[in-house]
Fold these 4 entries.
Entry 1:
Amino acid sequence: MRLSPLVANSTEAVLREILRFIGPADAVLSRYFRESPKLGPRERAAVAEAVYAVLRNRLVYTNLAESGSGAAMRRMALLGMADTVGVEAIGGLAELESTWLARVMQVDRNALPLALRLNLPEWLLARLTRQFGEEGAGAIADGLNQPAPLDLRVNALKGNRDDVLAALTAAHIDCVPTPYSPLGIRLGAKPALQHVALFQQGAIEVQDEGSQLLIQVVGAKRGEMVVDFCAGAGGKTLGLGAAMRNTGRLYAFDVSEKRLAKLKPRLARSGLSNVHPVVIAHENDAKVKRLAGKIDRVLIDAPCSGLGTLRRNPDIKWRQNPEGLQELAAKQASILASAARLVKPGGTLVYATCSILEEENEDIVTQFLAAHAEFALRPMGAVLAEQKIALEMGDYLKLSPHVHGTDGFFAAVMQRQALKAAVAESAAEPVSQAADATPDAPADTAAETSVESTAEAPARE
């Protein structure tokens, strides 16, 4: 069925704003749709898919668009539609446009230069090549350039996965269990979940399988005190609360009152009553300091580049830059050092990002451990085995789309020495060194930087 010419025109119009890269593409699209009541659900879906195709394939599309005549933005929009809905579905094409599209769609894109084919900015391709080698960088880029599936997490307080799978199947929703998360479900399409009874009842939440695995490695248990340090809209908070079986006390910290406000209706649906959202000014807020040394488990889903979520947010690769990464690394180190003070002796600290770059991941953890002898890294393989998750990992959780089918995620689990062990170690050291290694010594060098996720760090629900 051919789409209205309004779709191609709308795609071109919204691309003109999105490709300025002033803000997140999803926010620009949402505003455009609110201001365009003539677009129905089918038209909106077609516009969104075409826009995201352009963002994923910007370099290739720019190259192909140069071979035509007329407005380049119009040709970019048409290429996005051709790759998503097909040339035959595009309404309102001029004869010259039809001829041009038929020709460029025959181009063998695999024959294009690697840098062009991978659709990454030069600085990012250089970093990935240095970190993973040329072949590895190509595989990761290919995975990140594919559209992401829609994953759900079953709320264990309101049902089990088998029953939810059966109910979704009965509602004619194509779904399968995720391969790693015991509570995950992967949908074959993207239905309007707000109209699905299971969603309305709080039995399911949208959450990438990788994000679900972060909840698993935290290992929260009944009756514990847990902090989700950069909670945002609370996707992981909800999972942690369910893992705690709605017992104990779960703090959701964030500097954004607006983001935490989005958690409230989700909490109401979930049935959780052990969650306490707390707005903080920064990571050294007095509300944080009052809990120093009292928390069983702390999760830091740190503000990051978001480069592991390019399947969902492809505009990030064009909006991020090396200077922004340096600023983020300083913020990540400060947040980790400050949040670590909450962990009680014997407690667990989990540092996580949705980035694939070492400078935001391993480098941050290595620096932290070198400065905090009271913490030790737990091998991720052992952590996953405890949770009965069949994943082969070394010291860290490192997920990627082309290997695991998830967004790109990183996590490190660190344990604070139990009090007796720390005292024994301190007694064996010179006094000057023991003072530095005391578990309760504050990290007073941490700068008061914001915990708030930047525009480059999208929600990883």
Entry 2:
Amino acid sequence: MSLLEVPVRRWSVCSLAVLASCAPARLERTSPVAAVPAVRAAAPAPARLAPGIEPGGEDPRIHEIVGAVSAARLERDLRTLVAFGTRHTMSDTLSRTRGIGAARRYLFAEFGRISAACGGCLQVQYVADVVKGDPKSRIRQDTRVVNVVAIQRGRTDPNRHVIMQAHYDSRVTDVLDARSEAPGANDDGSGTVALLEAARVLSRYPSDATLVYAALAGEEQGLLGGEILARHAKTRGWEVAGVLNNDIIGNIEGSTGVVENTTARVFAPGIPPTADAAELRRFLSYAGELDTPSRQLARYVERTARRYIPNFAVRIVYRLDRFGRGGDHTPMFLAGFPAVRITETHENYTRQHQNLRVEKGIRYGDVIGGVNFPYLATMTGLNAAALAELGWAPPAPRNVTIRGAVLPSTTLRWDAVGAPDLAGYRVYWRLPTEPTWTQARWVGNRTEVTLENITIDNFFFGVAAVDREGHESLVVFPQPGR
């Protein structure tokens, strides 16, 4: 949707309902994307290393997670969602077979079945608010907007949350048309079924941080579900390590005629509009606009793809979203959380926000035939791998500072991370023209390091915490120190 169309509204808080849920998922790809292999038993945990020894780079369990994603299960779930006819936010909520009410009950029940399979490892709940109607907005009458959220509690750091989200509502050409057929297969049924499949896979594995799988409503009416979840997280004091918003992730045929299945885009916002004058001066003097937490999260996803998704590349786009458009990561970003949008590289605009029809030989509409399920399995595997990495990693270092002006060397300092399985820290640097981290040094379990003959003027720097199994936090860009 357009950022310019987000309505101003007043909120009336609704109630929560709580239950339980959890279950499996993975892929491989050549060109076109290869078939998905059978689910295998989870690999044993990697051996723990002695403190001070640099951990290895890959965890075989994450390869297993990626390999467990099932294109067949994704297709089954998507056919169920599409069969509800429309999932418009203001469509029928009482029918068992049609409308957004039937869709959200299906999602709630499916998360519940996943939870039952893992012994009740998921807490499944509705997170809902009433949006007050406004005749000038996309919500004309008071409407209860209901998110379906499944929470997998972390073992050692439960208040640190890693969120995967997608919107399950759909629309046609007229955003207020709640009656016409709106299959929403790719926008955003694809992201919604990826949530279910990621939960099936990751629920087999305990996580240090809490993993959240959030199916959001009201995106097409003004990013409503994202606002509701952001407010829910803020009022409950969640520490959010990252938000992966999946919106339109299953198509490989672009409007330009290109057919390509080996890349994805990650949109990563920079300076928030809430930045005050002091922050803007700091960006001007010391840089950091390319190294906001959301952009570090995008680099994290890109690195995860290089490690665990063969023959697949992530393209980082330094922008909030597509040109003039928005998604449910926007309210999460504006709430101060690291948040990115994961989406296909080549969108097909004849399949987005369209009434079902054929004109001049062109078939319009977001139908299931426009979704490539091996590619969707790849995208789901990428999300699951990134969630596992972030969920199993220690928290990021705090109070990272840098000094070295008019000196031949650069010194970084940070506070110690209180994680029981911490192995130490890795310091990164890159040329300012390079989009991702290209150089790194393992410094062990210490909280200060001087990089001799690496001048502060020529590079950008960062620090990450690493556990004994090699899982790494987001990189933290330093602030000027004394």
Entry 3:
Amino acid sequence: MTKMIFVNLPVADLEKSKAFYEAIGFTNNPMFSDDTAACMVLSDAIYVMLLTHEKWSTFTTKAIPDAKKSAQLMLAINCEDRAAVDSLTETAAASGGTPDCNPKQDLGFMYGRSFEDPDGHIWEPHWMDMQAAVEGPSAEAIAQ
């Protein structure tokens, strides 16, 4: 059985959040969506459940932190290349997100950026050249 991940995120404005996630490549699964929650699908194994604050409070008694002021998690997602990292980050910015909320990372074999969704949840699109990561830095890189 393939393992799946369901990330649950509290959101202040469900329709705004749905529009944001659709703009960055997720699709809504109406079978698991209503006026309190939206199931946003990225792949066969990755789902994000957007939950109104009221719906969220039915799952936990803990307070909802202000993700624009504090960070509890960062969600990293792999991309096929550097251009896809940049494209996703720029699309997020054009769709109501905040780009580069954390410093860009460029280690040669690994490249990443970040963005916040409208509620401040941090996503980190990244690309990694697995062969270069396994082989280690090149002689040229070591010489620099």
Entry 4:
Amino acid sequence: MTHTATRRLTLAALTVAVTAGSAMLSGCDNPPDTIKIGVAQPLSGNLAALGQDLHNGVKMAVDELNKEGFQIKGKTVKIEIIAMDDRSDPKAGVDVAKQLVDAGVVAVIGNLNSGVSIPAAPVYAEKHIAQLAISTNPKFTELGLDTTFRLVANDNLQARAIGSFAANQLNASKFAVVDDGTTYGKGLAAGASAELKKASKQVVVSYSSDDKTTKFDELAGKIKDGGVEVVVSTQGDFQILALIEALKKIDYNQQISILGGDTIKTTDMLKGSDTVKGLYATSPILDAKEFVNGKSFLARYQETFKREPAYGGHYTYDAMYILAGAMKRANSVKPEKITETLRTFDGYAPITGSMKWDAVGEQRYGVVGVYAVRKGVWDLQLRSDRW
């Protein structure tokens, strides 16, 4: 299917989805000439590649919508992205949230890090601005705010996936559980440890770093001394690569399998695939290629940005189309009406197929996949919404 045909089908689907609701809301506010969508992601630092990928997904969708002529109540409205760098830092994330609110955004796609999404959420909620986040810590939706919407499954499911896969598929009895000290990392690691212990597996090393450390000689020594067979880690890819180097120094890398969270299922992580016994990742971020329209998306992405996607840009691409559909259904670009519509909206997501939220903003159809590196690529092993 051609790119033009795909866009026409996407816009046609949006039109069909909103027709019934639009007629009932014909008396709503008049749309402005331009609307602003906030993007709050880490655009610098160690997670910049992931944050830029999430920004790229929004940009692709906005460029398509603007090119086709996005309309509210029959008026063509230009969508403008206001992108800001949250630096993976909670304080910066709150400052960015305040700046985006002051800039007049009607919705925000952000943040990557749970430790940033959670403190930023009340800032958006105060102004009824929907926050569509790919961060996975359950506390994000447990805040009780009607503006929080998660794009993927949360870490309760991912922790069960780690525990189940590690206990039943990796033929090991001694584990190390390592986290990066962030809200995301500590929460997921605690859940994974609990699952392993329920399966009567030994966690012989528990270790917490910060999210910037790359010196792991001490940890490598503990892993070797404990006879660890599998390292379960919620650190980022650059940290796991550094840990592998530390294990190589003491000739213990080939004895180890590593099972990580979604922050290691990256192209950079593939550099370490031949230096350990096995490399696995659990992720609620399913690869674009796993969806029917994924191949077309990937081709357009590569043509536009001259690179492979690094993480989950197809989810933020879909999130932008969901927001567009919600605005059409509400016949409004007022933040409170967008948020209200999203709460009951079964929107059309061009790549992943559907995004629909429950009463607290969790995905109704979230799943977690387990991937292994095979022949230099991440290869899906299994996935489920019931681990």
